């Protein structure tokens, strides 16, 4: 089968950037990204590429270069499916909020809907690629839907997990550590794998393209995220011990990171990891392990999440305790709301949970984030369903600039590692705050000595 057209279902943080880079590197292919959400597609088609719905360094210029040439964003899902030989599925797979596996298993309803739609529309053979992170063996379910509801056409299902991290998505896509493609070990399966290998080979060296069976590929993605998250929980667990003993977690991380067997990356103590993947993927792993009766394995991985929740909770507790055991009626300013720097994504951001705890203590929360607006912040809080939307709106206010946000504050909590925070005029901020002026640095990005010299009571994680 000659590949000339690709369709991607889901124009989100994964589908959008991934397809933009494929379009840039494969000018001979026509790529259509479709989404049920009309508003999102309209934003992707905004004349000014700075208004595309996802903020990601370098993305808007790749979109500007390719959009309308060989990259298209559309709501016409059926047409895009029908004409494509390869269909990527990159819709979201949230954790189930109901029924069996509630709070743990991935909700596959969107994936199933996609499979049914593909089955209905397809008139010729298709390769269907799982790009969303999925529980192991989802490919099997997709295949069964396609084979039993389709009109006799042949489907090959591939697993091609995404390893990009938000904030560095474009460089991760351009220079991946590896591309992983899982498929059936049959001749047809191998042909489908080769078709996808050929696409990536346009810019990725062959020795970085790994092929395997579907299940190994699916499980590798969950495992990679579980290992990364585990490193953060490990260092965070020790950050608490450092605070008790007078050791400094940054020094510990530096010392162990120089052991090449351990490596220096992903050892930054923080207020806790966020993002759409880590928690969800580990919960998934835990659910699968439990469903096979592997309770020790399940408990082992669940501890990574328990530790992460503890880290967020303990940060909020520390703020309350330090502010003389009460924050009622006090103004606490958050610098950062996104789950990490260089993204406007807030899913599972530690800031949400810390705000929730502090609002329970009747604090007023002021927020400045360079890329997140008031609407999103309130939507994140409302989603927790701790209190009414009106109460959230009364307790939380976001600002257009950091100096206004910090005016009159009792304390500042640094919750995202945006680089611009380091360069602020901290003397000016100090002068405008209530005294004593507290800074709780949840990302360890500010200079402790300088902050103390200005007069701040400064507390970092793990020292
Ligand atoms: C990611 C990854 O794909 C997934 O692996 C990860 O586990 C979590 O989410 P992401 O691109 O970050 O997806 O999600 P999101 O930004 O929510 O985008 C998904 C898009 O799919 C949304 O725009 C949504 O409107 C769209 N969608 C969802 C459809 O078009 N059809 C559906 O049936 C469901
Ligand atoms: C992650 C994986 O890195 C990526 O490969 C996968 O495809 C999707 O999930 P992402 O969630 O976008 O990517 O960001 P990542 O850089 O992994 O950060 C996740 C969270 O961990 C962030 O909240 C970040 O601030 C935090 N983190 C990261 C730490 O607290 N300390 C660290 O040392 C590293």
Automatic annotation (TrEMBL):
Domain of life: Bacteria
EC number: 1.1.1.22
Membrane-crossing segments per the record: none
Coiled coil residues, start to end: none
Top EC category: oxidoreductase
Pathway: Nucleotide-sugar biosynthesis; UDP-alpha-D-glucuronate biosynthesis; UDP-alpha-D-glucuronate from UDP-alpha-D-glucose: step 1/1
Key word Oxidoreductase present: yes
Keywords: NAD, Oxidoreductase
InterPro entries documented for this protein: 6-PGluconate_DH-like_C_sf, NAD(P)-bd_dom_sf, UDP-Glc/GDP-Man, UDP-Glc/GDP-Man_DH_C, UDP-Glc/GDP-Man_DH_C_sf, UDP-Glc/GDP-Man_DH_dimer, UDP-Glc/GDP-Man_DH_N, UDPglc_DH_euk
Pfam families reported for this sequence: UDPG_MGDP_dh (PF00984), UDPG_MGDP_dh_C (PF03720), UDPG_MGDP_dh_N (PF03721)
Residue span(s) of domain UDP-glucose/GDP-mannose dehydrogenase C-terminal: 333-448
SUPFAM superfamilies, A to Z: 6-phosphogluconate dehydrogenase C-terminal domain-like (SSF48179), NAD(P)-binding Rossmann-fold domains (SSF51735), UDP-glucose/GDP-mannose dehydrogenase C-terminal domain (SSF52413)
Catalytic activity from the UniProt record: UDP-alpha-D-glucose + 2 NAD(+) + H2O = UDP-alpha-D-glucuronate + 2 NADH + 3 H(+)
PANTHER family membership: UDP-GLUCOSE 6-DEHYDROGENASE, UDP-GLUCOSE DEHYDROGENASE/UDP-MANNAC DEHYDROGENASE
Protein family: Belongs to the UDP-glucose/GDP-mannose dehydrogenase family.
Protein name: UDP-glucose 6-dehydrogenase
Organism per entry: Flavobacterium quisquiliarum
